[in-house]
Amino acid sequence: MAVKKTLEHAYGFDDVAIVPGAVTTNPEMVSPDFELGGRSFPIPILASSMDAVVDPRFATTYSKLGGMAVLNLDGVQTRYDNPDEVLDRIAAASLTESTEIIQRVYQEPVREDLIARRVEEIKQGGGIPVVSTTPQNTKRFAPIAVEAGAEYFVVQSTVTTARHVSKSLRGLRLEELVRQLDPVPVIVGNTVDHDATLELMETGVHAILVGVGPGAACTSREVLGIGIPQITATIDTAHARDLYFERTGRYVPIITDGGIRTGGDVAKSICAGADAIMIGSPFAGTEEAPGRGYHWGMATPHAELPRGVRVHIGRNHSLNQLLFGPTSLTDGTENLMGALRTSMATCGARTIREFHEARMVIAPSIKTEGKIYQMAQRVRD
Amino acid sequence: MAVKKTLEHAYGFDDVAIVPGAVTTNPEMVSPDFELGGRSFPIPILASSMDAVVDPRFATTYSKLGGMAVLNLDGVQTRYDNPDEVLDRIAAASLTESTEIIQRVYQEPVREDLIARRVEEIKQGGGIPVVSTTPQNTKRFAPIAVEAGAEYFVVQSTVTTARHVSKSLRGLRLEELVRQLDPVPVIVGNTVDHDATLELMETGVHAILVGVGPGAACTSREVLGIGIPQITATIDTAHARDLYFERTGRYVPIITDGGIRTGGDVAKSICAGADAIMIGSPFAGTEEAPGRGYHWGMATPHAELPRGVRVHIGRNHSLNQLLFGPTSLTDGTENLMGALRTSMATCGARTIREFHEARMVIAPSIKTEGKIYQMAQRVRD
Amino acid sequence: MAVKKTLEHAYGFDDVAIVPGAVTTNPEMVSPDFELGGRSFPIPILASSMDAVVDPRFATTYSKLGGMAVLNLDGVQTRYDNPDEVLDRIAAASLTESTEIIQRVYQEPVREDLIARRVEEIKQGGGIPVVSTTPQNTKRFAPIAVEAGAEYFVVQSTVTTARHVSKSLRGLRLEELVRQLDPVPVIVGNTVDHDATLELMETGVHAILVGVGPGAACTSREVLGIGIPQITATIDTAHARDLYFERTGRYVPIITDGGIRTGGDVAKSICAGADAIMIGSPFAGTEEAPGRGYHWGMATPHAELPRGVRVHIGRNHSLNQLLFGPTSLTDGTENLMGALRTSMATCGARTIREFHEARMVIAPSIKTEGKIYQMAQRVRD
Amino acid sequence: MAVKKTLEHAYGFDDVAIVPGAVTTNPEMVSPDFELGGRSFPIPILASSMDAVVDPRFATTYSKLGGMAVLNLDGVQTRYDNPDEVLDRIAAASLTESTEIIQRVYQEPVREDLIARRVEEIKQGGGIPVVSTTPQNTKRFAPIAVEAGAEYFVVQSTVTTARHVSKSLRGLRLEELVRQLDPVPVIVGNTVDHDATLELMETGVHAILVGVGPGAACTSREVLGIGIPQITATIDTAHARDLYFERTGRYVPIITDGGIRTGGDVAKSICAGADAIMIGSPFAGTEEAPGRGYHWGMATPHAELPRGVRVHIGRNHSLNQLLFGPTSLTDGTENLMGALRTSMATCGARTIREFHEARMVIAPSIKTEGKIYQMAQRVRD
């Protein structure tokens, strides 16, 4: 008999809080390492593949600090011999000019020789090259990047599934990609659904990016009606990971990507089940970032849907300060690793897997207030 | 034993989000056709029967694009030989004058010859004439309109039920109307209730309009306390449609009407179970609309309750741009069909019936924020 | 074993909406009569016993229109030979002076001769005298008022229960009061609790006032933490009434009192289970009200807790317009009876008992928006 | 099989309301005494151990009124011979200077002789010395304070558990502390968790402080993502207390600490299960407080996380007025004890244990409104 559609509640960062439990430990006893492809990264925070966030120089620097920075193979770095000149131009433009400049900049074709050159630059600098492209460009770019020395390969679009129905005879088959790139680990995303995550894991990929339209300003939510708040997305996909692990013995990490802004958000993502998180804007605001204090989106490069506009972020702190402090701010936007460690210690969790066991509650009203207050202030200013 | 009244939760557009699933497809593989009366409309969006939205010229244009535009048989088109002169007057008036002018304009009686003339104008222009009136006027207007060539007939009031208790000996009986107009399909509304929908379907009507007092500005909600948010109304009535279909084999489409503003709202309505949606204001803002950049309500023409005031909307875009883009806006108010297609593709749904199977979640806080922010801004401006 | 405290959700006017069902009727077929003590009142709206709302003149006028107006036996009418002079003084004072004047005015003792005189004034004018006092003053004032011709007696305090534990040897016993005043019906309040309502009904009282601290501005909520939103309070106590009726065959009406502002609120109160409602502020804003466009509270006359301040309300409409329109306002604050009738008709309810059967849903976000918007505007203005 | 993480709802002061029941009593029949260590305190409100709240003079005064004031052993009183000079300096500084001054002031080491001297001062003044320190300093300070005459000892940090995993060979063991200080009662906190509370009670401590990151401005919530609203924290820990009492016959009071601002908050805390509450800011605003109208936090003295800034509070009332009125304010910030008594009386509760039985409901929308309104006003001003 016809079943009535049911609606479950979904929750975001501002809807929840972590509850300290019956054991505590000291922050210095905490090891929030993220393991992937036989390596252990002391910073479980990926820098997302955006032109204002990662260039080879940033990738190298961050890699040495202990994190993963993902270089975008569809951005200015692989379209221009001298990307710094392009980035200077975007930063120097007035706001009105900037949109047009950005749109023009990305019409230049990607050059295969530059893909190789950027990967090599990171390698030569002593960093671990991590690169990303869209499902459409994967077949073409992946072999080049891996040949040049890429050590992790990311396939990323708004929503990526193991089953994509298309008119073209042969789309991207993830099983083949994994086999072809072996032993280079393949990270795929984004997804938010339990079943979709299971199917992606079955293809053999090594990590999953989680997050579709999680935030208020997200065009996916406003324009398409699509999206799910990150805590629920993380809980759902982490559950799929745990079931898959129980069944197969293979542990496929979950990386929450989207909407994370503060140390509290980092802690909540990981407590909800993520093994790592991915952020863009906070990195774009560091002195080391290539964005020169600006940030711009390139998501959904769809003919009729708008390309992201340039946003002024400022160069607020060094990469080191963003991650480890010291800070005089009380809004959680600096010392992300210090906050994560303290949060884990307060729950007695010494590893990320232990932190997954900590209790969370829905505690919306308090944060909503804060948000409203912030918005009211933004409106006033 | 006396049962305590229970309250279930009801949800609107801003309370929910669509969740991408385990399959995706390309937007160009999506066919969001709406079928009614043996015809297939490529645009599942009806233009509502308001004087600022639909005149014969608009109806013809929109019909050729692939949509249904409903002409109001109780508006200026059927009261005046030269409605354009009246519309000019309303648009030219100051805001304070406008209310009085609008009230006076609708005191002129409806002329039966003009009903026929407007239907013929649409037909001659090459459009499909779709007309609407209230239950009170249906017996009188329906034969005239159908005789003149109307191909769809809409009976619409705030709340229409199959059982209306009245002092008059014989009110409108929908069974008879359906028989009398056969084979012209009869669309009836509005309703929001599961049982009321089933009873309406039993009368033989061909489609149901869903929506009573869904929005914040809606007088039904403020003045009468009556109304139900659209997602729940759509889920409830779509469930009735599915049960009725299982039992009888007859599929009676559900058309969600009221409060839809963005592509995200369109996608959510259809994902919730609607076969099509009906909108007014977005069309009133097109260059092709007869409202000249203004919009006014004529709902609840009740002696003691106020008639809608004139609202400035602006002529924001062409009809084509509203429906198909391109757009530089990120608020979802343009390219409604592009958004619907992308949304369906992201869920792997190639038809509207497949999109009904996609998952939705309650994710209120995020949109509430946005709303509050918008309102705070409106207050400031 | 020790049980953990549980919290149930409670709902107010802005949290719910009435859902139209499968039958409709015409507003003129609706009879929203309120029956009490063998009389039928065509207007199920009581005017509350406040000095800015009811004086003998207002009581007489409203009585003739078909409603009940409750005269406060602890107010200026029974303390002063010439209350109009006192009311003039309160209205003429500056805002800062007014608080002191109000506090001084209510230090004058209540005179028993004036109790009798006011009751007789209403009677002579052709009205039905309804009077109220606190539980403390009931034993002293009730015989005088009834002797003078009061036809309904109201015992009202913030919270009144059948069991009040006190040091004094003999407090007010409601059973005795009912017996003593018989056949004058006794109305008692306020309460919000199911069990408390049952116990009050057992004492033989004839109607129950429902509502404690329902509103945001309510000092009970802010200062004492006490209160419950009105829809839940009404549902809970109406359920007690229905169970009591089933068991005893005696129907004790429920009167929702507090926080009602619009026609929508009236409709929701009654749909939730109330047989009538009681309002103050809306009446205080009529030309006929003794408040001269002002209103002030006298609730919780507690030494350390503040007495209500004077609020400017304006003389916004005639009593007739408040109740029956016509209106040009769309916020529901005029034509309360028209709204109630239309709302009942839309649900196919011809009597209040039938309206109790209509369905309601929780639909909070929409109204919250409206509230926030209104507040944002108030803040701006 | 892997279990999906579940999220329960948690509630704060503004989410709930107390529901009056079927019995009432008079406020003067209420005895809200708090019993601890064989003494009965007529005021169940502890003054928290902050330098702007408690100095020996304040402790003495408050003690004589019937409450407990906790002296901070890590503050200016134990670092300076003449703390008044330091407090004058903090109060006299400009806002920008103040942060630096505060940070410098707390770098001076704590002197053991001053610990003893302050305790003696309270004792000599006729007060009951209650002192507090962090878990780190407990072993060192506790014997000195007790030796000098401290009658209650508080061990307090953001989160304190019975099991703390640390690299140092021997951390603080609460069992030993309790034994060592016997018969001086030991109060420990803070915690929010049911199991953590049970484990703390097993160590023999005499009372538990409840509250971690309850408020919006709380750095724990923003920075660490950690916290739980106070009503749920109180209900959960009070349940642990009741189970422990049933099992052992030993009653370990729960003291809710954090976020309490009004009489309504006090009443709700106790109704939710607290035996007493602890507040800082309201006391800091009294004329008797050492803060000179200012307040500053010293919480989480963590190298990379910011120390609290100085906030202007004003000297709003005498201690007596804060607790007992009279008041002309309607926001509940004065006459806390009057509000608590009235609230208890309205529920027919004569003792705190009886008040624990009163019913509470979730009634969020109303208070949210109020909050938004207040915030909108703050933004405007």
Task: Please explain how this structure is put together.
Four copies of one chain form a homotetramer. In chain A, the strands form four sheets. In chain A, strands 6-7-8-9-11-12-13-14 form an eight-stranded parallel barrel, surrounded by six helices. A two-stranded antiparallel sheet of chain A has the order 2-17. Chain A has helices spanning 56-65, 83-92, 95-105, 112-125, 135-148, 174-181, 194-202, 219-224, 230-248, 263-271, 281-284, 319-324, 336-346, 352-355, 364-380; strands spanning 8-9, 16-19, 23-25, 34-36, 39-41, 45-47, 68-72, 130-133, 152-156, 163-165, 186-191, 207-210, 254-257, 276-279, 294-296, 310-312, 359-362. Chain A is globular, with a radius of gyration of 20 Å. Chain A contains 15 helices and 17 strands. Chain A has 381 residues and is of the alpha/beta class. Chain A has one domain: TIM Barrel (Alpha-Beta Barrel). The longest helix of chain A is centred in the middle third of the chain and has 19 residues, at 230-248. The interface between B and C is large, with 61 and 70 residues.
Secondary structure blueprint with pairings:
The structure is a homotetramer of 381-residue chains.
Chain A: E1 8-9, E2 16-19, E3 23-25, E4 34-36, E5 39-41, E6 45-47, H1 56-65, E7 68-72, H2 83-92, H3 95-105, H4 112-125, E8 130-133, H5 135-148, E9 152-156, E10 163-165, H6 174-181, E11 186-191, H7 194-202, E12 207-210, H8 219-224, H9 230-248, E13 254-257, H10 263-271, E14 276-279, H11 281-284, E15 294-296, E16 310-312, H12 319-324, H13 336-346, H14 352-355, E17 359-362, H15 364-380
Parallel strand pairs in A: 6-7, 6-14, 7-8, 8-9, 9-11, 11-12, 12-13, 13-14
Antiparallel strand pairs in A: 2-17, 4-5, 15-16
